[in-house]
Amino acid sequence: MIRFLRRKNLTSSLFSPCTAKRRQCSRQLHRQVTASSIPEPTPFVPDSKTFLTLIGRNLIQHAAKVPTWNSLFSLTSEQLREVGVEPARTRRYLLWWRDRFKKGIYGLGGDLRHVKEGTATLKVVEVPYSDAEMRPKVARTGLEPKKKIVIDLPPEVLIESIPKTDLVPIKGFKVRGAHTIIGQFTTKIKGTGGGVAKFQVREGLWEEKRGVKIDGGERRRAEVRHKRRIEENKKRD
Fold first, then answer.
1. Considering all CA atoms of the chain, what is the largest pairwise distance in Å, rounded to the nearest integer?
2. 237 residues of the chain, pLDDT tens digit each
3. For the chain, how far is it from start to end, CA to CA, in angstroms?
4. pLDDT at position 107
């Protein structure tokens, strides 16, 4: 009997919740959570201001509250609230994008490697097919079949001087026709026939648009539509 009681007390002590102050316990744990490893800035996203600009939803207005790269990726949700990042959905959105960036999930242009003052130069180049790719059937001319891709290069660098291993296509851009760059928010350079374009940081480039509430949203839709039918029936009478 004594052994049973001791075992019962031990089990209850191991698996008991935080009793009456459960919320306070969870808050203390939240404060104690250490920030995960801070990712390195990228050429396209070199600082916190650029990050806030890209993800949109007017988060650039909070740039002074998270002025450094370390603060951007280390502040907790509660700390963001304390410095004035409101409302809660804005903090959740910022933390969501922050987590994506840590995992290497970027928006358009996130993999650019040569960016100067927020602008990259895109060019069309021809590269041979890899062994894993399906090569097109061509006539036996003795020439190796090639494909056209879009890369980013500094304006002063010649394509011929770049090693073939560095000729990696930029995601989100493709070539149409002979050498025309196709992609969102690109600005074609005159006199290049569309083979050279500019791409730059802009407000909301990576923004995830919020859904539009219809008739008050899911929770109030039935109530709103019911009241509307009542008003319509009154007008008919």
1. 93
2. 444 444 444 444 444 444 444 444 434 434 443 445 899 999 999 999 999 999 999 999 999 999 999 999 999 999 999 999 999 999 999 999 999 999 999 999 999 999 999 999 999 988 887 766 666 655 555 567 788 999 998 878 877 778 777 788 999 999 998 889 999 999 999 988 888 999 999 999 999 987 666 776 667 778 888 888 888 888 876
3. 78
4. 96
Residue 114: Cβ within 10 Å count: 16
Respond yes or no on whether the N-terminal peptide bond of residue 87 is cis (omega within 30° of 0).
yes
What are the Cα distances from residue 37, in Å, to 34, 101, 102, 172, 231?
A: 9, 12, 8, 28, 57
Report CA dihedral (224, 230, 231, 236) to the nearest 10 degrees.
Answer: 150
pLDDT at 193: 87
Cα dist. 199→19, 60, 144, 149, 217 in Å?
Answer: 56, 20, 31, 16, 37
- Amino acid found at 169: P
**DSSP code string of 46-99:** -SHHHHHHHH-TTGGGGTTTS-SHHHHHH--HHHHHHHT--SHHHHHHHHHHHH
Structure tokens at 173: 């851009």
Whether the CA torsion 212, 214, 216, 217 is positive or negative: it is negative
Contacts of 210 (CB under 8 A, 6+ apart): 57
Q: Which of 125, 38, 29, 7 is nearest to 77 (CA)?
A: 29
What are the residues whose beta carbons fall under 8 Å from the beta carbon of 80, sequence distance 6 or more? 65, 66, 91, 94, 95
Cα distance between residue 40 and residue 107, in whole Å: 16
Residues in the chain: 237
